[in-house]
Amino acid sequence: MKVWVDDQRCRGHGMCLTLCPEVFSLTDDGYAVAVDSEVPADLESATHEAIQCCPEQAISEK
């Protein structure tokens, strides 16, 4: 699975980082980014939860 954060939609709520800090981080400006676009299999469930919980729907699965 691959994941991507749309930097035009992200507003820095940090839900993704709270739910899956191994996959997401925040930039110096406070916006989310995927640490690595390739998500390890054992983190796919948490990543899907982050996608569903993003208030801005800024996270996409590639």
TrEMBL record:
InterPro entries in alphabetical order: 3Fe4S_ferredoxin (IPR001080), 4Fe4S_Fe-S-bd (IPR017896), Fe-S_cluster_ET (IPR051269)
Lineage top rank: taxon: Bacteria
Pfam families: Fer4_15
UniProt KW Transcription keyword: no
Alphabetic keyword roster: 3Fe-4S, Electron transport, Iron, Iron-sulfur, Metal-binding, Transport
Cofactor needs: [3Fe-4S] cluster
Chain ranges of the 4Fe-4S ferredoxin-type domain: 1-29
Free-text function comment from the UniProt entry: Ferredoxins are iron-sulfur proteins that transfer electrons in a wide variety of metabolic reactions.
Protein name: Ferredoxin
Organism, scientific name: Mycobacterium paraterrae
